[in-house]
Design a protein that fits this description.
The chain is of the alpha/beta class and 399 residues long. It has 11 helices and 17 strands. The chain is globular and about 55 Å long.
C-alpha cells in the first residue's frame, strides 16, 4: 500500500546521516521523526540540530514506535542485514546503506523477510544516483555513443574539504575506524575493497545498459615497499595488511563487452592528477567521460567539465552540473549533497506510489557477490565467475 507520508526512524549517526536527513527534509512527503545511536549525546546533538522529536539508543525499542513506518539504516556494514531483517519483521519499509550484507545468505534472508512482510527494501547505492552518472546513462539510452562496449573506471585520491563535517568526530574504533576491520566492514582482509567495489560494479552494470558482469579478474599487489601515505590524502583508510588490489578487469554476459577499474592514489603509493572516481564509457560511435564521487580534473579545451561527450561524426560537447558543491570532498561534482538526495527522492517516490525502487535488496546482494568474486580472484590469482562464488568459498580463501 502506498504511503501518503513517509515517517522515518534513522539508525546510525555517522558520516552519511546528515546527507540523508537533509534529503528527507527536502521532500514534501517525508519527515524524520526519530534518530537512534548508541551514543546518546550524538543522538541528542543531531536531533536538536534538525528539530527531530525523538531519540533512541536501542534499535529494537525504536522499531516498536508506531509512528515510524520506515527505517533508514546507516550503521556499520555488519549490522546492515540483521537490522534490515528486524525492520521487515516489525513491518517497516527499509532503506539500507551499502554494502548490503557481509554474507550472501544474510542478504537473501533480508530480501526474503521484506517479501514476507510485504515491505519495500531499497539499498542505498548512491553512485547510480549521481546527477553526472544518471546523465551519462540518459545519453547512452538516447544512442549518442551507439552500443556501449567498454567501461574504464579510474580511481584517484579523495581529498576532504577543509572544515567538512566528516572531521567533526575523531576516528575511533566505534566511529569510522570500523571500516578498517573486516569483521565489521567485510572483505576477508580487504575491507576497503568490500566497502567500495559494490559502488564500482553497480556503476559498471548501470552504464552498460544493465548488462550483468559474468567474470572478474583482480590483480593483487604487495605494499610492503610503501612508506606511510600522507595523512591529508588518505581520508579514513590505511593500506590493508593483506595488500592492495590496484586493477580489476571483468567481462559481461555479452562477450563483446568488457570493463576495467584502476586505482592510483595515495593509499597504494601512486599519484594521479585526476582525483576521486571517474568513468569512461566507450561505444561504437562515441565515448563519454564522466566524474563520480570526489571527482576533479576532467577538462575539455582548458575548461573544467563534469561530463564530456565525444561523438564520431557530431563533435564533442562538455557539460557541468553545478549543484552547490560537495559537503565532504574537494570535488568538481556534488556527491554527498546531491546523490543521496536523488537516491532518497527515489525511495520516497517508490513508497508514495507503490512502485518498486530502482535499486533493490537483490541488486545489493548481487554486487556484494561480484565484489566477493574480485577478492577471491586476487587471492587465488585466477579469473572468477560471479555465479560460482558462495559464502564458503569467500570465507575459505586465505589472504
Amino acid at each position: 500500500m502506498a504511503l501518503s507520508e513517509v515517517k522515518v526512524g534513522l539508525v546510525g549517526l555517522g558520516l552519511v546521516c546528515e546527507s540523508h536527513i537533509k534529503a528527507y527534509r527536502a521532500h514534501p512527503k517525508a519527515r524524520v521523526v526519530a534518530v537512534c545511536d548508541l551514543d546518546q549525546d550524538r543522538a541528542g546533538q543531531i536531533a536538536s540540530k534538525y528539530g527531530i522529536p525523538k531519540t533512541y539508543t536501542d534499535y529494537a525499542q525504536m522499531l516498536t514506535d508506531p509512528e515510524i513506518d520506515t527505517v533508514d539504516i546507516t550503521t556499520p556494514t555488519v549490522l546492515h542485514a540483521p537490522m534490515a531483517i528486524a525492520a521487515a519483521r516489525a513491518g517497516k519499509h527499509i532503506l539500507c546503506e551499502k554494502p548490503f550484507c557481509l554474507t550472501l545468505a544474510e542478504g537473501q534472508a533480508a530480501c526474503d523477510a521484506a517479501d514476507a512482510a510485504d515491505v519495500t527494501l531499497m539499498v542505498g547505492e548512491s553512485y547510480i544516483f549521481m546527477t553526472s552518472i544518471m546523465k551519462a546513462r540518459a545519453l547512452i539510452d538516447a544512442g549518442h555513443i551507439g552500443r556501449p562496449l567498454q567501461i574504464r573506471q579510474r580511481f584517484g585520491t579523495w581529498l576532504e574539504r577543509p572544515g567538512a563535517h566528516a572531521t567533526d568526530r575523531a576516528i575511533t574504533d566505534d566511529h569510522r575506524g570500523w571500516r578498517l576491520d573486516s569483521t565489521r566492514a567485510g572483505g576477508a582482509g580487504y575491507p576497503w575493497m568490500f566497502d567500495h567495489c559494490v559502488h564500482f560494479f553497480a556503476t559498471a552494470e548501470y552504464l552498460m545498459s544493465d548488462a550483468r558482469i559474468r567474470e572478474v579478474y583482480a590483480l593483487k599487489s604487495d605494499l610492503s615497499w610503501m612508506q606511510p601515505p600522507d595523512a591529508a590524502e588518505t581520508h579514513m583508510y590505511r593500506p590493508e595488511s593483506a595488500g592492495d588490489i590496484p586493477i580489476i578487469t571483468w567481462t559481461y554476459d555479452d562477450p563483446a563487452c568488457q570493463g576495467v577499474w584502476m586505482r592510483a592514489e595515495a593509499l597504494n603509493g601512486k599519484y594521479d592528477p585526476m582525483f576521486g572516481f571517474s568513468v569512461s564509457v566507450i561505444g561504437e560511435t562515441g565515448m563519454i567521460e564522466v566524474l563520480g564521487e570526489g571527482g576533479r580534473g576532467l577538462t575539455w579545451r582548458g575548461k573544467d567539465a563534469h561530463l564530456v561527450l565525444h561523438r564520431k561524426t557530431d563533435g564533442t560537447d562538455s557539460l557541468r552540473f553545478d549543484e552547490g558543491g560537495d559537503e565532504i570532498w574537494q570535488s568538481e561534482v556534488s556527491y554527498y549533497s546531491r546523490a543521496h538526495l536523488n537516491q532518497i527522492t527515489e525511495f520516497i517516490d517508490a513508497l508514495t506510489t507503490g512502485q518498486p525502487p530502482r535499486y533493490t535488496g537483490a541488486d545489493g546482494t548481487r554486487h556484494v557477490r561480484t565484489t566477493m568474486a574480485a577478492i577471491c580472484s586476487a587471492k587465488e590469482g585466477l579469473p572468477v565467475r560471479v555465479n560460482e562464488v558462495n559464502d564458503a568459498r569467500f570465507a575459505g580463501v586465505p589472504s
